[in-house]
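User: Sequence recovery, please. Input:
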């Protein structure tokens, strides 16, 4: 049983204290918030302090009176049960009433999510002080067309991306991409052009709202937006992330409150318990209820990797590396040459581990080069069999492996490595790789197997090590 936190009155901290990450344009000189705040007050809606701070930023304008985030959009990584639909939904309704002719599209990945959002916003517009602004028969649900129309010509249209909604719609002023953790590049390419002819006097607004993606989600677009924001590369955009600490204990209610500023004064403790009970996978709870991203992905190496393709024949290998996948389903041997431009390659990747010792011995006998293995990795069980077979090893410790990963990353980025294929097991491993969290990062996976990347990382590091005297007892350099 998880005990509710001892909070006797609502706590409404500012956005700067609530957000784990907060990135916004520096050219904001004014905001449309006071105007919208008055409209919300007429609708009997009052935000908590952090919500009003977020909307103030969203409606921030530059010196040309255009929305400061009209280029980069508004990206919100927010857990469930925080009040996202109410906050953004009521904002859009207030804007529709305030600005005649405003055209809004709200999309979700799944039809069920879209329908739930539509119902929630119906609840807002049917309030006593909002209903007079609705057009006659202003709530449309027929034939799969879900719309809310206002007497002043403003409209909010709802649809599911999985059903192709949004293609062909034009002159959209505000586009909301809910469930952005499942937003594919194709859907994005279909939807964003709908705002090219926006008529709103302050420019178009694009919202990307979601929770941290699962490994099975098409989450690259959402992850890329987060990555750009955290590296200071987002152009005129807003990024807000609400989340618990990366290493938080899953049932720590103080961490629940850190991730969800609406808990417990707006989101009851029982609601969190209900979600905890029904999200049976701990990783799902971590992402969706606590807002914790699985990994700190870095897309620089993925984009730079393709630029390191070379056509020349590789020189003889200077070292090989051995790595085993975390589930021990796959083993990989990677190679690296030495020199100013090191050639990297996949030597062999096969299921199991039975073949590794004999192949490593064969390569070492042929080229007289070091064989490198991580002494604390999944392949560590091969160390003794390798020694018994007469393979001379360099056994990398934890610090060595961290150095090796950093070295690999840096050399890919600056262009002092090359590889011959963008489709071999090495490039495939690069494509599914990510960084672990922490100050000294190592490779891990978003999905799939990264053992070939780990093997080549060890080989590159080993090729650069000065080889001293051999330890004849342990058969280790």
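Assistant: Recovered sequence (477 residues):
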């Amino acid at each position: 049983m998880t005990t509710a936190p001892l909070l006797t009155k609502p706590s409404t901290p500012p956005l700067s204290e609530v957000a784990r990450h907060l990135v916004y344009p520096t050219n904001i000189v004014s905001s449309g918030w006071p105007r919208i705040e008055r409209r919300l007050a007429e609708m009997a809606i009052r935000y908590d302090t952090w919500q009003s701070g977020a909307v103030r930023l969203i409606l921030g304008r530059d010196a040309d009176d255009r929305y400061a985030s009209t280029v980069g959009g508004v990206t919100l990584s927010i857990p469930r049960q925080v009040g996202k639909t109410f906050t953004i939904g009521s904002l859009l309704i207030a804007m529709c009433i305030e600005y005649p002719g405003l055209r809004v599209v709200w999309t979700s990945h799944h039809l069920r999510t879209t329908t739930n959002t539509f119902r929630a916003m119906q609840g807002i517009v049917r309030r006593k002080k909002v209903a007079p602004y609705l057009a006659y028969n202003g709530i449309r649900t027929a034939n799969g067309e879900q719309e809310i129309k206002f007497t002043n010509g403003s409209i909010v249209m709802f649809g599911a991306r999985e059903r192709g909604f949004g293609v062909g719609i034009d002159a959209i002023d505000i586009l909301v991409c809910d469930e952005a953790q499942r937003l594919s590049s194709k859907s994005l390419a279909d939807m964003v052009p709908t705002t090219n002819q926006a008529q709103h006097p302050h420019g178009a607004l694009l919202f990307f709202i979601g929770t941290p993606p699962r490994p099975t989600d098409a989450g690259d677009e959402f992850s890329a937006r987060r990555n750009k924001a955290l590296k200071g590369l987002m152009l005129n955009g807003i990024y807000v992330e609400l989340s618990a600490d990366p290493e938080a204990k899953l049932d720590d209610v103080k961490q629940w409150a850190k991730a969800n500023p609406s808990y417990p004064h707006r989101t009851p403790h029982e609601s969190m318990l209900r979600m905890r009970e029904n999200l049976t996978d701990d990783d799902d709870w971590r992402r969706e209820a606590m807002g914790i991203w699985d990994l700190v992905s870095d897309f620089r190496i993925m984009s730079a990797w393709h630029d390191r393709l070379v056509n020349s024949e590789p020189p003889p290998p200077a070292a090989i590396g051995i790595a085993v996948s975390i589930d021990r389903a796959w083993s990989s041997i990677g190679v690296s040459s030495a020199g100013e431009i090191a050639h990297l390659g996949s030597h062999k990747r096969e299921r199991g581990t039975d073949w590794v010792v004999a192949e490593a011995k064969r390569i070492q006998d042929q080229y007289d080069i070091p064989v490198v293995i991580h002494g604390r990795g999944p392949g560590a069980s091969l160390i003794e069999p390798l020694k018994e077979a007469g393979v001379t090893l360099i056994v990398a410790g934890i610090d060595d492996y961290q150095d090796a990963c950093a070295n690999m990353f840096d050399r890919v980025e600056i262009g002092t490595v090359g590889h011959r294929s963008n489709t071999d097991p090495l490039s495939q491993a690069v494509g599914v790789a990510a960084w672990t969290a922490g100050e000294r990062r190592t490779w891990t996976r978003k999905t799939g197997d990264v053992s070939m990347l780990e093997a080549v990382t060890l080989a590159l590091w080993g090729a650069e090590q000065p080889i001293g005297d051999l330890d004849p007892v342990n058969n280790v350099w």
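The radius of gyration is 27 Å.
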